[in-house]
Design a protein that fits this description.
The chain has 59 residues and is mostly helical. Helices cover 90% and strands 0% of the residues. The chain is built from two helices and no strands.
């Protein structure tokens, strides 16, 4: 099995100079963007509210 995987990896890499890291990054980029688009605004809003409350209590 290991030799078959190595042969496949060699074939893929010899046809295309991109590394496995490049391929994984290319596949993950749209998923990461979608997750950030869905979750980042809510996270930032929550953290900003918490910081405003913390600062306003300190005065």
């Amino acid at each position: 099995m290991n030799s078959a995987f190595n042969a496949l990896a060699h074939t893929v890499l010899s046809r295309n100079a991109r590394t496995l890291d490049d391929l994984v990054a290319e596949m993950l980029r749209p998923m990461l963007k979608a997750w950030l688009d869905d979750n980042l605004p809510v996270m930032v809003e929550r953290l900003v509210r918490a910081e405003i409350e913390r600062v306003s209590r300190g005065r």
